[in-house]
Batch of 4 targets.
Target 1
Amino acid sequence: MAMLSPPILLVIVTIYWELSIFNLHYFYSSTNDDIDKLVDLKREIITVIQSVKEPEYQLLLELRYLRYESWEDIAEKMNYSWRNIHYLHAKALKAINLNISLHSFAHNIRRII
């Protein structure tokens, strides 16, 4: 196998490093964009949850959409049955007086992650 001359080797290494730096820059910039979207989305979710007047509904929505807890864990923490937590959740969603539902927020978060 023929050895590469030092100038050719230097060119190959330089191109490799430039591509690596470009790829890292692209990765970090797209990751930062995704993080920014998630932060904005979380702010919107917090605003929607805070618009609900009933503290019990706020707690349920916070546990589900900000802490991503399971229905079972929420039911246990709030001393409700699984079925009653879903009933309470439906009432909490109805209490939101905005056109945007938390379900679409949750789907957007899961799609980004």
Target 2
Amino acid sequence: MPQSLSEPPLACAPVGLRVVDRRLFGLLSRARRHGLATLDLTTAACTLSQAARDARRLALGGLPRMPALLDLVVSRAAGIFGAPHIRLYPSLAQAHFALLLAILPRGQTVLSLKLRAGGSVTHSLGAHSAGRWFNVAQYGVEPATGQPTETELRRLCLAHRPRLIIAGGVTCPHRPRLQLLRELADEVDAVLVADLTDHAGLVAGGHLPCPLAEAHLVVMPTNREFRGPPGALIATADIDLARQIDLTLTDQGDAGLAPATASALAAAFGEVPSEAFRRYIQGVSENAASLRRALQAEGLLVAGGDTSILVLDLRPLGLGAEPAATLLRRIGLNADPVPLVDDPAPLALPSGLRLSVAALTARGFGPEEMAVTASLIGRTLRCRQPGAREAEAALRRVAAGLARRFPLVS
């Protein structure tokens, strides 16, 4: 049964921890209480399914390195995406960088999405190690559509002749134009990588088509919509690219996964073919659309809705993203500050909030709860007048009530 807010935090923790390290026990207890009372709209929220939690607990007691366990994870992932080659990584950043090392000779060019348009730091920022080892050319998107134009993409491809093209990123509320990017990749003899950070679960659940029909390689996180532990995988149906990745990365990848992580991954991937997972993914899609409509009804400017995330434009409210995120945290809502496509402000002073519905859907939220969540967001962002503490306290009670009705899996 899920743990309620009235239960003592970390009740199942070994007594020895309370005796040996009271400071650590207190820190973990406070974090647990905060998690139970908070509604997480961040994309990094890790809401494991019950099966994944049970598998992880069984493995935490200590297991030898189990090749059979890794084989099970890989075979289940391969069945989900129809890809004969799967490589596992402890983090998405490691998977991103591993791709660059495997495909690109040092000094070659990668074409990726601009950070302001939703691209990832690990493949779009020149200050990152990827930008020091490789040449980075970047494409943007049109503010009205959230998509790059064919004219700009073609110009950049012909001017830079990239060896690697990355479609998608970490804050993309719209699906990338894979068919166009594949045509351009073939034209300049480049490898096309689809980054499924924002919609891997929607693909796995059959709600969106698998991008391996157009992309040579796919990279994605294993948590978020998958309800698995943090990690990442690379999938491909191209035998030559698979061999190239294996030869280049013999000292990286799945050998670094802890048995507990591999066990939870096996359980999470094992749930994907089930009807329950399909209903959950359908709920993610419906909740994203419901939250967008509800936020618009609150008079807020929001983009997205065809993946699990939305991007809220705070400029009409005269708010920066960091102050807005602080206001939401005070009532029990977590959201990520992000830059906006057409915002002239520096990247360090973003004006957007990224909202993901995956964690809330995993807790059992539906369209009705999304409407309440949108109301909480709208009222909180406008609750900035002096003497608004009573209103803030009332909003905090509503958020806490939702958290109690839909508790985290214990």
Target 3
Amino acid sequence: MSNPILPDGPDGMPWDGPLLMFHDLVDHAPLFAFIDGMLVEYQRFEKFVTPVDRLTRRGHLVLVSGPDGVGKSSFVQWCARKLERHPEIANPLVFYFGLAALPPECVNFRKTAAWLLRQMALVLEGKEGMTREDIDKLLREADDPYVAFGGLVDVLHDKSAVALIILPQKIPLEWVRGFRDMARARMVFFAEWGAADRVELAAGFGEVPTCYSAFLQLSQMAGVEADIREILTNRVAGMDEAERKLVAEALRNFPVPREAIDELVYLFDIRGSGKMTPSKVRAYQDDLTKRLLKALERKPPQGRKER
């Protein structure tokens, strides 16, 4: 299954990335949800958009921070996919600009916002239920993005739609703040930023009455991508959903990436070439208990030093 949000790369395959190494993000992600606190941040996102009807009352900004290679782009798409497939969102409209190369005229926020809106209008032309009048309403005031995005609100309301807008990766943080200030009901902006503390980011953005903002932070995935690739290529291939669930449950108690990956290797070594079964998971758990007991035996009693 290809990612419905991310366009295909120049070779016809999905664009690569730490999370997009999964052929099916929904199926494989639980195996690696422990990495970098990703599961915790994803749960924070789910809480942020719950109940989902809050999207119809205010705008929303989701800003994901973290160092290069940590999986920000993939995580943003994961969150957008969650909303795109939500049963209570009748008409989700996805606008993916994550890898978009901005044209030379995008020298400031207003020109970038105007360009973005024109591209959104082109996408909407192919959407069922959109009329020429709807498109013209957006383009009429495109040079004044604050007015034009106000027109987008009207279109979204008329169509009972929610716009999921993934902003270009390389825009300045001040421009992200500008889109946040323009966000209104039925608009969800997704953006990413480099290594930065989410608390500091939130303080720098402040609050506005028209938009809820969530600041999510990924941090520890960098440096383990090669290990994940090896596991996916040589270990996970061919596993069915039941097997993946067994593996995910077995790894639940290992939140540190290096430890979790080492334990995955132990578990797959015990599995061998056959299917992953409950009995093999129990054998792994027995092996884990023995290893932990040995580690305790080597550890000197508290308050006493080894000679």
Target 4
Amino acid sequence: MACCMSCARGCPWRDMHERYGKWNSVYIRFRRWAEQGCLERSVANPCGSGTV
């Protein structure tokens, strides 16, 4: 996932590979997920057992 790669490597959003789309679109999506708590749920349940 592009968001995880950017956070894990500490690279600037603008340096993301083109295959992930426009860097600004990826950033906005990541920010919305963070605000909605999606990232916490995915970390708590990485295998997607359906309890989210």
